[in-house]
C-alpha cells in the first residue's frame, strides 16, 4: 500500500512540475525571442559593447529550448528520457547553458566591480567586452566541463553511490559532481564579494543624485538575490541527495530525488529573470525595447518614471559621477 501511495505521489509531483515548466516556457520563449530580436536588429549589441549581455541571452534561449523535452518526460512521469542518447544530449545542454550563463554573469559583475570600486585602474574585463573572440573562448572553455555527460559509462540522473562502480565510472561521477558544485559555489563567492564592495563604495558616495545611487545599489543586490533564488536551493538539494544515496537510505532518497528535481525546475526560472535584470539594467537597451513593443501610453508613463536617466547602464552613470567627483577633489 505504501509503495502504491508513494508511486501516486511521485506521479502527482512530476505532473505539477511539468505544468510549472509549461509556464516557464510560455513566458520565457516570447521574452527571450523579443530580447534577441532587439539585440540583433535594433540595439546592435556589437556596437554598444553589450556582447556579454547577448551571450547571456543566447544561453537563456538555449535553456528555454530544452524545456519542451523536459515537459514531455515529466508529463509521462519520467525523470529523464528512456533514450540514452537524448538523455545525454539534454544533460550536455543543461550543463553548457548553465555554465555559460553563470560565466558571463560573473564576468559582467567583475566589470561592474572594477568600474565602481577601482576607478582609475586598468580594467582588463573592459578590454574583453570589446572582443567577440573572448566570448567564443569562454564557450569553448566550458566544453571540457561537459565531458562527464559524453562518456559512454555515464549513467543519467547521477549514479554516484547507486552501484558498484569501476574506477573510470567513479572518476566520471566524481568529476561531474565537482563541476556541478564548483560551478555554483565559486561564482557565488565572487559575486557576493563584488556586490558587497560595490554597495559599500556607493554608500560612501555623497556627491550625485541619491535616486540613481539607490538604483545602482538595488541592481547589484538583485543580482545576488536572483542567483541565490535560482541556483543555491538546487545545489543544497543535490548535496542532500548525494548524502542519502551514499548512506543507502532508500526511502529518504525517493523524497530527496523529488525535492532535487523540483528545485531544478525552479532554477529554470533563470531564463525569465536574467532579461529583467541584466538586459533592462542597460537603459539604452530598455528604451529601444519599450519603444518597439510597448503601446504609446505605456511608453509615456515609463519615460516619465525614468526621467533624468541616460542611455547608459546604471552603474556607468554612477561611475561617471564618481569620476567627476574625483577630478574635482584633485
Tell me the CATH superfamily: Rhodopsin 7-helix transmembrane proteins
Helix content: over 70%
User: What name does the CATH topology carry?
Assistant: Rhopdopsin 7-helix transmembrane proteins
CATH class: Mainly Alpha
Total strands: 0
What proportion strand? under 5%
Radius of gyration: 22 Å
End-to-end separation in angstroms reads 79 Å
Given the structure, what is the number of helices?
A: 13
Anisotropy-based shape: globular
Mean of the pLDDT scores?
76
The domain count comes to 1
Element order, helices and strands? HHHHHHHHHHHHH
Could you describe the largest sheet, including whether it forms a barrel? Answer: none
The second-level CATH architecture is Up-down Bundle
Low-confidence stretches: 1-5, 308-330
SS content category = mainly alpha
Describe what you observe in this structure.
With 330 residues, this protein is an all-alpha fold. It has one domain: Rhopdopsin 7-helix transmembrane proteins, CATH 1.20.1070.10. It has helices at residues 2-42, 51-75, 84-117, 124-129, 132-142, 167-204, 210-230, 232-246, 250-267, 270-279, 283-293, 296-305, 314-329. Helix 1 runs parallel beside helix 9 and helix 7 (210-230) packs antiparallel against helix 10 (270-279). It is globular, with a radius of gyration of 22 Å. It comes from Oreochromis aureus. Residues 31-278 form the G-protein coupled receptors family 1 profile domain.
Amino acid at each position: 500500500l505504501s509503495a502504491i501511495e508513494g508511486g501516486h505521489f511521485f506521479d502527482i509531483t512530476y505532473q505539477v512540475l511539468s505544468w510549472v515548466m509549461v509556464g516557464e516556457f510560455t513566458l520565457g520563449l516570447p521574452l527571450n525571442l523579443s530580447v534577441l530580436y532587439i539585440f540583433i536588429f535594433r540595439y546592435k549589441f556589437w556596437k554598444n559593447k553589450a556582447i556579454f549581455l547577448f551571450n547571456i541571452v543566447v544561453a537563456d534561449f538555449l535553456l528555454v529550448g530544452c524545456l519542451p523535452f523536459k515537459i514531455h518526460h515529466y508529463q509521462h512521469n519520467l525523470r529523464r528520457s528512456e533514450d540514452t542518447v537524448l538523455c545525454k544530449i539534454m544533460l550536455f545542454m543543461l550543463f553548457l547553458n548553465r555554465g555559460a550563463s553563470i560565466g558571463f554573469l560573473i564576468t559582467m559583475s567583475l566589470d561592474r566591480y572594477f568600474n565602481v570600486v577601482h576607478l582609475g585602474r586598468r580594467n582588463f574585463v573592459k578590454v574583453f567586452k570589446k572582443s567577440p573572440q573572448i566570448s567564443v573562448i569562454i564557450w569553448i572553455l566550458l566544453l571540457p566541463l561537459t565531458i562527464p555527460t559524453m562518456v559512454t559509462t555515464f549513467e543519467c540522473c547521477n549514479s554516484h553511490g547507486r552501484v558498484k562502480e569501476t574506477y573510470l565510472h567513479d572518476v566520471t561521477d566524481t568529476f561531474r559532481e565537482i563541476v556541478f558544485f564548483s560551478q555554483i559555489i565559486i561564482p557565488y563567492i565572487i559575486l557576493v564579494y563584488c556586490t558587497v564592495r560595490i554597495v559599500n563604495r556607493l554608500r560612501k558616495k555623497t556627491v550625485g543624485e541619491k535616486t540613481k545611487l539607490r538604483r545602482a545599489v538595488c541592481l547589484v543586490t538583485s543580482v545576488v538575490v536572483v542567483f541565490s533564488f535560482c541556483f543555491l536551493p538546487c545545489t543544497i538539494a543535490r548535496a542532500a541527495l548525494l548524502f542519502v544515496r551514499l548512506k543507502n537510505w532508500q526511502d529518504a532518497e525517493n523524497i530527496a530525488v523529488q525535492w532535487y528535481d523540483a528545485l531544478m525546475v525552479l532554477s529554470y526560472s533563470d531564463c525569465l529573470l536574467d532579461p529583467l535584470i541584466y538586459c533592462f539594467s542597460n537603459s539604452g537597451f530598455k528604451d529601444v525595447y519599450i519603444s518597439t513593443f510597448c503601446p504609446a501610453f505605456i511608453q509615456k508613463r515609463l519615460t516619465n518614471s525614468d526621467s533624468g536617466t541616460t542611455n547608459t547602464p546604471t552603474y556607468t552613470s554612477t561611475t561617471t559621477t564618481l569620476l567627476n567627483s574625483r577630478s574635482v577633489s584633485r
